[in-house]
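In this supplementary section we document a worked example of the pipeline. Step one takes a protein sequence of length 333 as its only input; no multiple sequence alignment statistics are reported here. Step two produces a three-dimensional model, which step three serialises into structure tokens for compact storage. The input and output of this example are shown verbatim.
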Amino acid sequence: MSELLPLIDSFGRLHNNLRISVTDRCNIRCFYCMPAENVEFMDKQELLTFEEIERFVRVVVPLGINKLRLTGGEPLVRRDLDQLVSRLAAIPGIEDIGLTTNGILLAEQAEALHAAGLRRINVSLDALTPGKFKQFTRRDGFEKVIEGIKAAQRVGFDPVKVNAVSVRGLTEEEIVPFGDFARNTGVEVRFIEYMPLDADNAWEREKVLFAHEIIERLSAEIMPLIPEGNQEPHAPATDFVFEDGIGRIGFIASISQPFCMSCNRIRITADGKLRNCLFSLEETDLRLLLRRTGSDAEIAAAVRASVAAKKEGHEINTARFIQPERPMYSIGG
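The serialised model returned by step three reads:
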């Protein structure tokens, strides 16, 4: 009977959401995620194949997983990603597939991804001017991201969400333009507090621009933000709408308002390591089981053991916090 039980950890959290990193490679170099140069990427032979990813998902669906999100690195640099989406969408029990992308390659792939069964898309965009965009990404490409957002809307993705990392001393002047962007384009803007997952270990709490400060700024300079009703209890974002009903804004306040006790997510890295928390210091090697004749039951047991060992929270706000050795691009966003 144990194989029929849902994935519940020792704190009573039910897990139904799997984030799948398909590559650690990326075509930009955001400072909060990657080094600027000389990045050592995984050998392609280390990456899970589409067949291995599909098999793993088929194993965990009976455990209660019904939501998937594809990440990277930049997932759209993985060749034929729409074929993986099609494979996953065909698995009975999968109710939702999302994708997080930097948008550089989105214009040319949006139609194929939508046709394959992808329905939700998040585009990482931290600034609304080419100069500030390059300051974040250390690469060009702002216009391509805007083209990608428009293409995603055109082929039927609704809503398109834009994720903007908020960094004190850098993004204050972006707050109001992003509010206007949400109101004028119909995208949902989500401000994300700067987290300690950078490759250079340069994160400092003093650099975090907190969600409540952004709410105050938008409310003062555009119009009041009103919390939306019927918030999804496991969603990382708290959603607001402007008082006139035009423009939706979300906040992922991982530092100032941790949502660890409602977390329903597990994640697998591009090289097949299962992580029960974004900030976990331990991993479970599932690639070994997938490639060395591990049975489905053994894989399921390994997933259960990982979930059972999940800690109460990330402890960023305590002296006990230790930053993971893997930076964001290697874990999967």
